Amino acid sequence: MICHEKGVNTLIAQRKSVELDHFHVPWEKITMKMLSLPYRVGILGGGQLARMLALKAHQMGLEPHVLSLSHQDPAAQVTSWWSQGDPNVPLQAERFLSGVDVATFESEFYCAQSLSQAVEKTQVPLFPQPNVMATLQDRWPQKQLLDRYNISTSPYLSVQNRTELNSAHDTLGLPFVLKKRRFGYDGYGTLIIKDKDQFTELYQVFKEDDVGFIAEAFVPFERELALMMIRSRDKSFVSYPLVESYQQNSRCLWVKGPAQHPNFVPFKEKLQEMLESINYVGAIGIEMFDTGDRLLVNELAPRVHNSGHYTMDAMSEDQFSLHLKSILGLPLGDVHSLAPGFAMYNLLGSGQSDPQWTLPEAVYFHWYGKGENRDGRKMGHLNCLASTPDLALKRLTDARRLIQI
Amino acid sequence: MICHEKGVNTLIAQRKSVELDHFHVPWEKITMKMLSLPYRVGILGGGQLARMLALKAHQMGLEPHVLSLSHQDPAAQVTSWWSQGDPNVPLQAERFLSGVDVATFESEFYCAQSLSQAVEKTQVPLFPQPNVMATLQDRWPQKQLLDRYNISTSPYLSVQNRTELNSAHDTLGLPFVLKKRRFGYDGYGTLIIKDKDQFTELYQVFKEDDVGFIAEAFVPFERELALMMIRSRDKSFVSYPLVESYQQNSRCLWVKGPAQHPNFVPFKEKLQEMLESINYVGAIGIEMFDTGDRLLVNELAPRVHNSGHYTMDAMSEDQFSLHLKSILGLPLGDVHSLAPGFAMYNLLGSGQSDPQWTLPEAVYFHWYGKGENRDGRKMGHLNCLASTPDLALKRLTDARRLIQI
């Protein structure tokens, strides 16, 4: 055991050495994009992802302009450049865009067509691009995109009516998964049909819906994995480590990493190829199933992502910083992890009491400033570094007990 | 050289291992102070120190309330809880304090008496305490405090009139240093009298001033050093590494660390003893002269400090986070550095053009959002990690060229 620990430490030392060498940047060879200050970054949406983007933007010297419904929204609290409005109302989106230099969003479920028009009218770029948003906000073209680049995913069928629901049952067998094509997150809009009775019940109540559905084969997986990738307008590219994520009631409870999988490298290469082909710009969260020998993409989210929150403390540069650099067209450089193991633990609301919390030692605490403590709501998260992923996670489950939500 | 590098890496590996073990916190033995949300932290002042405190407060789930003169102030930009006002106007300070749960300040030069009264009336605690602020904002009682705890500093005399100016000349010899007792920073309010002619000129124009002066012996030093210490209301204590700082035109240009000095450990112990004796709460910046064999305190600043900005990226927890924890009475835990070498480089204004900047790779960029680019003004700073302090500094001097201010 002691020998093993020494082995790990030598490994860390070697890796650190390599990483520190990576810091030797050939400045003279780099053509840097220069930005004039002040530089205004528009963020559509006011939740925790927008908040963390805005906080990082302040640090980097960017002016974060936030468009959201309420001045009490998590992101509205952290900037003086907040505007009241709805990104889905074309005129409000347009007015907001006309006051910034570049824009991004925290949710892929805005009306892509309306945003596309606002971009065209104002000539203010929005990343990821509205057409990419349109493709990825809908599970049907998202699946087709994955197919086109030969990236494994679960078998699927479109379900618009009862006839197609029957076909899905016949083709995929039981259990299978029925998902709304759009607006699904954290398990909302997802139904697992486990047996004949459930299918009969569903068949009886099934109604056509203008959003539409997709049926997916149920994938028996060993664990869920996740990955953040970021691609800049200048074409530089960063892939964060593979991590394991654990969902409770379809909501992410924790993430630990780094994780390994024998097929990860070729899988990652195919994903990168896909992103390059569609000229993707920004951060993208990739959720995967590990079936043992295979990796399958479960979902793509074209934005900063909960599964990447560990990067705030565990990596040399976090997803929010790199996402902002990417939409500005700045080089992303290299990232490296700051410890051999790390973990993230979501602080989910109970809806039962006012939160009481303390700031545990050796644990990084992040809170979103949400007023209402609703059951299962993402209120904040904890990060931890340690010598192994499991030890980091163990500390977080211990520390979690110090916080009453 | 290779052997030496291996030695360094082994050292890092060993140190990392010890540090990771420190993460084993005996939760069951810790009585944690629980805080109810929302928890409002008042910050007096709106400059870059207030801004960095506010950004960290948001992350930690605290509501940063800022009192400053202009809504364009660096800290006013980063919170929706900004109030227009002057901390030196008693009624404005009182009204502000009555709306928060605990308060702190970014400058020790506010009227301590007025703040003391506001604290008494509102019963809202302010840290560091107003009486500590009063002692440390005036170089005369500050020197006397250092004397009381037998902490080396340069010989000094009070100078209120021409007779005392003559005594200073006779006692300290030439050159000597004349400083305003209060309101001095970045070289403002400091005069070095180098020769007889300068003394005669000074003698002729010397006028009594209600702030008063202090004369100090000129200390020929080899280098300047700096140190951040933080003490919590729960009495836990953290000392960051010793660092070297370099001043250009009396303004800090860079910091690199860690630095070594043979007398550092006993010196540090005396400083800690002093802070414990006066029940100090908060962060304190300690500027020192290294004369080769001796360490002398040059100045104490009872607040977060420019010489501690490297902690934002180079340490496991930064001065802003620990200062906030300290005024909340939370345990500070341990801190450790994330690389064997680190540096900080101030981005000082030239007053000549609109800033143009880029975000260099492998360098952490921090910007304060100041509207006006004045000559010598602190506009932002860069941090860097590397295998040695010198290498980190070298990278920053290179990266600095990419930023036009």
Structure description:
- Two copies of one chain form a homodimer.
- The first copy, chain A, has 405 residues and is an alpha+beta fold.
- Chain A contains twelve helices and 19 strands.
- Chain A has helices spanning 2-22, 48-60, 90-97, 112-122, 130-136, 139-148, 162-172, 196-205, 264-277, 311-314, 319-328, 389-400; strands at 35-36, 39-44, 62-68, 82-84, 102-105, 156-159, 176-180, 190-193, 213-217, 223-231, 237-239, 243-248, 251-257, 282-290, 295-301, 341-348, 356-357, 364-367, 378-386.
- In chain A, a hairpin with a 5-residue loop joins β10 and β11.
- The longest helix of chain A has 21 residues, at 2-22.
- Chain A is globular, with a radius of gyration of 22 Å.
- The two termini of chain A are 39 Å apart.
- β17 (356-357) of chain A pairs antiparallel with β1 (35-36) of chain B, so a sheet runs across the interface.
Oligomer: homodimer
Largest interface: A-B, 72 and 72 residues
Number of E-state strands of chain A: 19
Helix content of chain A: 25-40%
Number of helices of chain A: 12
- Please report the distance between the alpha carbons of the first and last residues of chain A: 39 Å
Query: How confident is the prediction overall: mean pLDDT of chain A?
Result: 88
Structural class of chain A: alpha+beta
| Low-confidence runs of at least 5 consecutive residues of chain A | 1-32
CA gyration radius of chain A, whole angstroms? 22 Å
The fraction of residues in strands of chain A falls at 25-35%
Largest sheet of chain A: 9 strands, antiparallel
Overall geometric form of chain A: globular
